[in-house]
Amino acid sequence: MNPCKPVYIRSLSGVVLLTTLVVLITGCQTTPLASPRMDPEVAFREYRVGQSVNGRPIDIVVLGSGPDTTFILATIHGNEQAGTPLVEKLIEHLGQRPYLLRDKTVVIMPVANPDGMAQNSRFNARGVDLNRNFAAPNRTTAAAHGPAGLSEPESRVIEKVIRDYQPDRVVAIHQPLNCIDYDGPGESLAYQMATLSGLPVKKLGARPGSLGSFVGLTLNRPIITVELPRQADQLDRDALWDRYGPMLLTAVTYRTQAK
User: Fold this and answer.
1) For residue 235, which of 47, 207, 211, 239 is within the disulfide window of CB 3.0 to 4.6 Å?
2) 13: exposed, middle or buried (C-beta count within 10 Å: 0-12, 13-18, 19+)?
3) 257 C-beta neighbours (distance < 10 Å), count
4) Domain edges within the chain
5) How far is 217 from 227, CA to CA, in rounded Å?
6) Smallest Cα–Cα separation from 33: which of 131, 108, 118, 122?
7) What are the pLDDT digits (tens) for 102-137?
């Protein structure tokens, strides 16, 4: 099934949900995220950017409108779910603090693999590991990697968001390896995030066809892979935020030296 065309869902001023219209135009099921409390000065938009193999929506939240852009995504592996409540808390935190968004745009994808999340599975509904399905130079052909780079609707949606927003840095939240990895020119940011999170920096090596390989090798942009510990699943949103929120805020406020 092809991804839906990006569809504007709502903004802070006038939270109007275009459920019927979106279904009629795109055939996509519409289940918007819960409305966080927002400062009226914050530019807040939510878009339906695509859908999964089984038709579940894939949404992004965009906060701010400045030139420095950070893209953060969670749950590209559906059984690594602690990142989703963590980034939902980030949306709420940034939405109440407009000063953090001066000259910034933050693009957040809370659930990159909704079918996998529904089944508590690493893979999408076709049994493909989305984090091996990007068109990176080190991609290998295997059943679990997909028949070709970007063969899966979910990986195509992620790639399109990156092409459209041209982020200065990308942060992907995983589990359970309890470390921070980086690809591309991301070493400095990785160590700053490690200092605030207590997670050690470890170079795990570029995985074939991974998002890290695509962003770091193909695009030569910083990408941080945050590997939360396995027990992060046992923490509620507030506890996750207390422990790992400062790390994410560092990624948002970080300034890339050469753009």
Assistant:
1) 239
2) exposed
3) 7
4) 7-253
5) 20
6) 108
7) 999 999 999 999 999 999 999 999 999 999 999 998
